[in-house]
Amino acid sequence: MTTDDQRPLGSPFSATSTAEAVTAGLDLSGRTAVVTGGASGLGLETVRALSAAGARVIVPARRPEPARDALRHLDGCEVVPADLTDLDSVRSAAELIAGAARHVDLLFAVAGVMATPERRVGPGWEGQLAANHLGHFALARALHPLLAARGARVVVNSSAGHALTDIRWHDPHFHDGYDKWLAYGQSKTANVLFAAHLDVLGRADGVRAFALHPGKIITGLQRELTLREQVERGWVDERGAVVGADFKSPSQGAATGLWAATSPLLDGRGGLYLEDCEVARVAAPGDSMDDGGVRAYALDPGSAARLWDVSLAATGAAPITRGRGR
Q1: For residue 134, what are the CA distances in angstroms to 221, 284, 288?
Q2: Catalytic residue set
Q3: Of residues 136, 109, 104, the one with CA closest to residue 28
Q4: Quick one: CATH architecture of 3-314?
Q5: Which of 49, 199, 223, 226 is a good FRET partner for 242, with 20 to 30 A between their CA atoms?
Q6: 0.85 exceeded by the pTM?
């Protein structure tokens, strides 16, 4: 993939399309999907649409019982325990999934945290990078044989927040001073770079990967921010009601990920960054975050390969040998 491929394809959907509209008429019977964060927010909307289309859906969840309660009315859904900040938990979840499914056709990396207080997890990792990137990296690597079994699509939720910063190669874990927004932005850039290089390594097995900005949506992602912070940013009013311009409903926010996973327009493609159910343009250097598009540094092949190697070393995951698993 090059930045020349990063251009709109003429999708019939848009920023206002819903999950239900994107999946209308789809028959996903016989398909198995794994959706992190699938018990709330955009993940839950994703699971609802997949279940309605006949897919079997497995939801790794840090709190399994509340997750099962949230999904109890949906057909074909099951929950496995998984904490994305705990590599042993991620490996156990992958083993449970491998024991229950012969293939994974769709992997949605939806779970995430945003602008959290400083937290250290594992061997001193910065918590947002761990939860948003390293945990998903480890899960996808452990599931690769199942993804390669029939050629899967992997969909990674990033954010326009990736515009806040490139990877801080000199200090990715913020040992020299923590900034919650830069930490969030770095983790979202990592999401894009991860999808780009997974696509490079996985395509010989038919595994294609996409990253996306779901749009502005008020969900549980904002739980670490005070009401005052959200009011000052113009997202909500003093009562917590959404007032921000161009905010989407959760169903609209889930639509781009479902489009990424199912659209025939994306057959034979991958390594792309999407927004509003379309391939996004490459942002110009002076563009603001609200202008949309993807930053060129988040698609840089050298950075993507470098982050992949750093993530392999950090998680102890096995490398992908191209062409295996088909």
Answers
A1: 18, 29, 27
A2: 184
A3: 104
A4: 3-Layer(aba) Sandwich (3.40)
A5: 49
A6: yes
